[in-house]
Structures are given as structure tokens and as C-alpha cells.
Amino acid sequence: xxxxxxxxxxxxxxxxxxxxxxxxxxxxxxxxxxxxxxxxxxxxxxxxxxxxxxxxxxxxxxxxxxxxxxxxxxxxxxxxxxxxxxxxxxxxxxxxxxxxxxxxxxxxxxxxxxxxxxxxxxxxxxxxxxxxxxxxxxxxxxxxxxxxxxxxxxxxxxxxxxxxxxxxxxxxxx
Length: 174
What we know:
This protein is mainly α. It is built from six helices and no strands.
């Protein structure tokens, strides 16, 4: 049976995540708005929120570790996508090649758990570049900025929020 304390902690954790996602979305959609099309602005907000959700974990240590993993996988993907888009236009075969190369490099770096994030990031960035082919090479840079904001807000809010919310319910800060 779930205790009241566990229910309160779960509710406050969920509220913490929702607040972090709101902050992330607001930062990206207000900061990027003057510089990019509305579709890039909205995509950026969504992508930043995905990064926040990805790193927001049950403990502060797990959150930090997830932030490092997300940063490593995203950085590799962004570099590969940028190099690809500076040389070639989007193609399905090219996307598959970049995903394969990213997988190979991540394996060599000893980070097999990051294959999923590297592959997803590569697919999203390259398909979005195909949807908006004018200045396609901007997409990796924009999505990298979105991800950095999402990671930063998710990790910092999880650490700061943990103290405030978990102390409010008398739970141990993890």
C-alpha cells in the first residue's frame, strides 16, 4: 500500500518536472522567437523539453549522469549531422549512414547506452533539415542549443527543486 508520504513525494516530483519543462519551453520559445521561423521556435521548444524530461531522474546523481549522457550523445550526433549537411543534401541513405557512423563511434567510446539518444537525435535533426532544406545546416546548431538549455534547466531545477520540495514533505533529498 502506498503511503501518504510516498504519494506526496510523487506528486511533488511530478510538479517539479512540469515546472522545469515549462521553464525550458518558455526560455527557448522566447529567446529564439526573434531569430527563427515560428516552426523552428516551436520545434526548439519541444526539443528542449524532451531534453529536460530525458535528464529529470529519481535522484540528483542519476539526473546529473543522464545530463552527461545526453550531452555526449547529442554532441556526437550534432557534429556528424553538421558535417554531413555541409557536404550533402538529406537522403534516407545518408541518414542511415550517419546513424551507423554515430553508433560505431559511440561503441568505440565505450558508451553503448548512448546509441539510442545518438540515433534519435540524428534522425530528428536530419529529417527536420529535409523539411526545411534552405539553410539545412542551421538545424544541428539550433537543436544543439535547444538540448543545452533543456539539459541545463533539467539538471539545475532537479537539484534546486529537490531541496525545496522534498524538504516540504519531510523526505530525504536524493
